[in-house]
Amino acid sequence: MRNGLIAAMLLFAIGSPAAAQDGWTPGGSSDGVALSFRDDAASGTREVRAIAEVPHAADRVIAVACDFTQELDPDVREVKLLSGDLDSRYSIYLRYAPRYVVVAARDVVIDVRRQADGCAWSEAANGAELREGTVRMPLLRGSWTVEPLDTSRSRVTYQIAVNPGGRIPKWMVRRGAAGALPRVIERINRCLAESTADNVRCAAK
Fold first, then answer.
1. Could you tell me if 13 and 174 are in contact, meaning their C-beta atoms sit under 8 angstroms apart?
2. Which residues on adjacent β-strands are paired with residue 83?
3. Cα 45-166-47 angle, rounded to 5 deg
4. Domain spanning 2-193: which superfamily?
5. Under a CB-based contact definition with an 8 Å cutoff, are residues 120 and 92 in contact?
6. Which of 22, 59, 80, 159 stands the most exposed, by the fewest C-beta atoms within 10 Å?
7. What is the pTM of this model?
8. Crossing angle of helices 2-14/170-193, nearest 10°?
9. What are the residue ranges spanned by the domains of the chain?
10. DSSP string for 99-129
11. Going by DSSP bridges, is the β-strand pair 105-115/134-136 parallel, antiparallel, or unpaired?
């Protein structure tokens, strides 16, 4: 998996010669996760997308993926639900602090909107005080779309666009996003496989 993921990261960092489809350029695959990207000139960011089939019912996948209080990303060190309902629409504070990269912590407030087939989110203009030593992310947008294939299988599409702010090189941001998406899908898979309960809680590992 490591070699395949590194190859995918390089494709996101330097671009891919493969033909784009509907604006998306293929960026390789790893362990059944197909990666692609497209550049958004309006925001100056690169959108990254991961598509995979998972052996879980769609409603169980949505319940975990669209709950940002779940511990799915190891770089998220602090989570605070600010307002709303996790089952419909809510505002949440996230603070990121990468474990292995020496950069300042980042934080953001996002507005998450639940939908019948998943959820979508975008950064909120306010909702939390600026913190010393932490850079407020100017853009974090994305979505989960979960399509049921049968009663116990689903196709997931995970898409994000991020501008972390500060002076992090764009190639590093792109590479980080390309690596993060398959990791989150794998974490959801493992979390759901380890629990048959309706109310699944994912613990950090």
1. yes
2. 91
3. 15
4. START domain (3.30.530.20)
5. no
6. 22
7. 0.83
8. 140
9. 2-193
10. SSS---EEEEEEEEEEETTEEEEEE-S-SS-
11. parallel
